């Protein structure tokens, strides 16, 4: 039994982080839009109704399957550090909030390029529902009211954030309409003039002035230099499927390395949710994360080649790091010389989009650029301040991102799309979803609702309370220090998933841990 039914449809399906976004994306499909049109429409609504998760001041990554070309494309719409910033600016560490910890926003450029490549309806149509919700308002959900209250101290320190999120002189209550007229005006300018309005036009000038007023460093030349990257997607063969992941600067290579290691462990032969299976997956995770910490950085400035992590000989060596006892620390492998919201969409023509966007922490930098309604990300804190790290802060460099999406093909057609928010939990939850769906043949909604584990560091393993006590005790016997968390722990993310069955029917699921909804027609 699951808390909600699996959604099934034959013409199109949207699974996103908010019901208003799902409804808007579904309307775009009904209007003749493609999966890309619906994805951007839903993503734009998320940027209005989920400010604790995403914003047009954030970043975006996507994998897109084009049914006509029968190929997968990757989009990296993440921004770089301002060119005026370097390590010596943060000798005392990063501040808790403020415009100074924002990188160049990439969401707008990502939306525009997705539509230019794969859309049918245009940017104005795609942004119309988001503009309406920003201008006319939308009812505040329980989750949003709780998030604003939880971050009220940070929001209250920024005059513009306090004005927008507390328009009545207090924080909004559940069910009250929440309006963002400045954001509506910014979205309207983008809808009318295209992405250049933000990166080179009048909105760009007002944005830069506002950032400077707020103490930030993003300049006109930083905006003008922004480009959406189109790197070749990474992929591994797993249990007969070709699983695609997001290439760097995304951490999607972690999931693919986990799956490559797991391919030789026979996870389908272990009891689902049992101690032996969980142990093998956790130790696999540790090996992949150790490699990330040692090697990952912006390929444009470090030469990092994630494909080397997936080399069969390298994977065979890493598989030997998965031992029978819980490791306190796993060493990285040696190369041979040489807050966030996710959505998935499929359309009746077989096109598919797996997309994630984020402002990093809850409410990002907790700083709204005056006069624009744009909430800034705090992605700069994703850089290491250790100059020896491949992910060390440098001017014009992109930080390593936790953001990643997944798309699996069966032959030349999509079989699964899934993803989740949740920072370092993302590739761990995606790993659990992949094994549940592919190795154990679960329905998407059941796979999403199964109890989850989460590992941060050392031997401490967080496990949702719904795991049987016998499993937790058995894992303790293997050396794990089990910490029990809530039945539905938000730290493990808020996943959405779509499966395409052999008869062409779409199955969608959404996570009860957050506000996600799936719908189709």
Quick overview:
The chain has 521 residues and is of the alpha+beta class.
If you had to describe this structure to a student in words, what would you say it looks like?
This protein has 521 residues and is of the alpha+beta class. It has a domain at 7-230 and 342-382. Helix content is 35%, strand content 18%. The strands form 5 sheets. Strands 1-19-18-14-13-8-7 form a 7-stranded antiparallel sheet. A hairpin with a 5-residue loop joins strand 18 (496-500) and strand 19. The chain is globular.
Write the layout of secondary structure elements.
Elements (H helix, E strand, L loop, with lengths): L6 E3 L2 E5 L2 H12 L4 H15 L9 E8 L4 E7 L29 H12 L4 H14 L1 E2 L2 H9 L1 H6 L1 H7 L11 E2 L2 H13 L2 H4 L2 H12 L6 H5 L9 E5 L2 E5 L6 H11 L12 H21 L3 H4 L9 H8 L20 E8 L4 E7 L9 E2 L4 E2 L30 E5 L2 E7 L6 H14 L4 H6 L3 E3 L4 E5 L4 H9 L3 E5 L10 E5 L5 E5 L6 E4 L1
Parallel strand pairs: 16-17
Antiparallel strand pairs: 1-19, 2-9, 2-20, 3-4, 3-10, 5-6, 7-8, 8-13, 9-10, 11-12, 13-14, 14-18, 15-16, 18-19
């Amino acid at each position: 039994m699951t808390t909600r039914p699996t959604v099934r449809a034959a013409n199109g399906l949207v699974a996103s982080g908010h019901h208003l976004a799902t409804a808007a994306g579904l309307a775009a499909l009904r209007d003749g839009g493609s999966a890309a049109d619906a994805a951007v429409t839903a993503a734009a609504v998320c940027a209005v109704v989920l400010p604790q998760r995403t914003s047009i001041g954030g970043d975006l990554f996507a994998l897109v399957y084009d049914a006509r070309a029968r190929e997968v494309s990757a989009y990296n719409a993440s921004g770089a550090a301002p060119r005026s910033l370097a390590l010596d600016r943060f000798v005392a560490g990063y501040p808790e909030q403020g415009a100074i910890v924002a990188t160049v926003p990439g969401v707008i450029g990502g939306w525009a390029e997705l539509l230019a490549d794969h859309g049918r309806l245009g940017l104005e149509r795609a942004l119309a529902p988001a503009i309406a919700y920003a201008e006319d308002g939308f009812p505040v959900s329980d989750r949003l009211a709780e998030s604003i209250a939880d971050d009220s101290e940070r929001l209250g320190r920024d005059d513009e954030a306090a004005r927008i999120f507390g328009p009545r002189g207090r924080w909004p209550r559940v069910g009250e309409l929440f309006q963002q007229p400045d954001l509506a005006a910014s979205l309207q300018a983008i809808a009318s003039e295209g992405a250049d309005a933000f990166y080179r036009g009048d909105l760009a000038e007002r944005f830069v002035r506002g950032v400077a007023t707020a103490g930030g460093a993003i300049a006109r030349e930083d905006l003008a230099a922004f480009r959406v990257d189109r790197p070749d997607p990474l992929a591994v063969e797993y249990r007969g499927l070709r699983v695609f992941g997001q290439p760097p600067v995304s951490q999607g290579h972690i999931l693919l390395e986990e799956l490559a290691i797991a391919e030789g462990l026979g996870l389908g032969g272990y009891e689902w949710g049992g101690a032996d299976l969980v142990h093998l997956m956790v130790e696999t995770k540790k090996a992949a994360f150790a490699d990330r910490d040692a090697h990952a950085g912006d390929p444009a400035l470090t030469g990092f080649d994630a494909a080397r992590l997936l080399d069969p000989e390298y994977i065979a060596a890493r598989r030997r790091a998965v031992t029978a006892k819980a490791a306190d620390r796993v060493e990285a492998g040696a190369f041979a010389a040489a807050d966030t919201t996710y959505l998935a969409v499929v359309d009746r023509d077989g096109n598919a989009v797996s997309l994630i966007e984020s402002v990093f922490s809850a409410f990002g930098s907790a700083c709204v650029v005056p006069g624009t309604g744009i909430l800034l990300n705090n992605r700069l804190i994703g850089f290491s301040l250790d100059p020896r790290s491949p992910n060390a802060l440098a001017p014009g460099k992109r930080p390593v991102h936790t953001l990643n999406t997944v798309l699996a093909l069966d032959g030349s057609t999509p079989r699964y799309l899934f993803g989740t928010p949740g920072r370092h939990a993302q590739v761990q939850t995606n790993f659990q979803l992949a094994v549940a769906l592919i190795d154990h043949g679960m329905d998407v909604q059941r796979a999403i609702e199964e109890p989850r584990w989460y590992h941060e560091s050392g031997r401490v393993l967080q496990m949702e309370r719904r795991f049987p006590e016998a499993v937790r005790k058995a894992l303790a016997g293997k050396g794990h220090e089990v910490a029990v968390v809530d039945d539905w722990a938000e730290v493990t993310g808020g996943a959405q998933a779509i499966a395409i069955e052999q008869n062409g029917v779409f199955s969608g699921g959404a996570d009860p841990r957050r506000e996600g909804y799936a719908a189709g027609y």
